[in-house]
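Hi again,

Forgot to attach this to my earlier email, sorry! This is the prediction with guanosine-5'-triphosphate bound. I've pasted everything inline since the attachment limit keeps bouncing my files.
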Amino acid sequence: MKLAERVRTGDRLALARLLTLIENNSPEGQDTLSELHALTGRAHRIGVTGAPGTGKSALVNRLTQHLRAQDDPPFVAIVAVDPTSPFTGGAILGDRIRMRDLSGDPGIFIRSMANRGALGGLAGTTSGVVDALDAAGFQWILIETVGTGQAEVDIAGAAHTVLVLGAPGMGDAVQTLKAGVLEISDILVVNKSDLPGAESAARALRAALELGPVDSEWMTPILLTSADNGDGIPELAAKISTHMEHLKKTGGREERDHARVVGEMERLLQQRLTDRFKAAQSDGDYERAIERVVDRELSPMRAIDELFQD
Ligand SMILES: Nc1nc2c(ncn2[C@@H]2O[C@H](COP(=O)(O)OP(=O)(O)OP(=O)(O)O)[C@@H](O)[C@H]2O)c(=O)[nH]1
Ligand SMILES: [Mg+2]
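Structure tokens for the complex follow:
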């Protein structure tokens, strides 16, 4: 059976193989994705971002357990993008241990991606991976990424609903907002509500939120959760569903999907044109132009002008 057919019919090994092919940017992966494209568009894509250690992985775990314990539970996929290295306190090992709670359930699929991929960087690889999971029938796709500027922008482009996590006592609750996260967050979560200071972090967030631009259609809610004891998790799941309905009613879902496709097309086009342009240069011209810019003989703009004239 063809790989696309196996993925479509729920073969998890085939899915894992496809994701690896996508990460390696192999032509077979691209072909299979193309065959599966018509099946995408059903999943709800949820981005989970926030500073390292705020409890993103723990929350994703809890939320998944909650969803899977419902009547008629959705299929849930988890994509951990670029997990923090052990140096910055991110516990990849810890993640694995926690993730063990989830394994054994065929309605859950977990993928960790530390590979920036050759083509289009992380954004490109992530969108392919998420598309594959969507085509494979996962209804909720949770995408965890560390909040570091570019990653946030990428996740906003990849998701329907963006959760931004803060935690008490990190002083970063409001700091995070300064980095422009306010604009991309659909739901703000103060996790670790079992620790002191959660209420005041939520108040600080509320105040910061009121200073920002007001979206009359969707007021970004602030929820308190504890991934540790499960407080607030059902409310969070319900709020995500509400946002999902809101997007469907207001056309926001199509809007976000459209914007995602625009980004995707432009990324691919840029890559294709760049490759073609470089391939058309005589041997070494491009590299020589770079050296001349480095040596301040030429500005980058003039260098490109010259290359285009040849
Ligand atoms: N007390 C308390 N601790 C929590 C809670 N959620 C997570 N933690 C702890 O906080 C630490 C970090 O949790 P993670 O889930 O790994 O955080 P993360 O945001 O995924 O971290 P990175 O992926 O490294 O950015 C772990 O020791 C968790 O056990 C919570 O609600 N309450
Ligand atoms: Mg994590």
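The radius of gyration is 21 Å. Residues 85-94 have pLDDT under 50 and may be disordered.

That should be everything now.

G.
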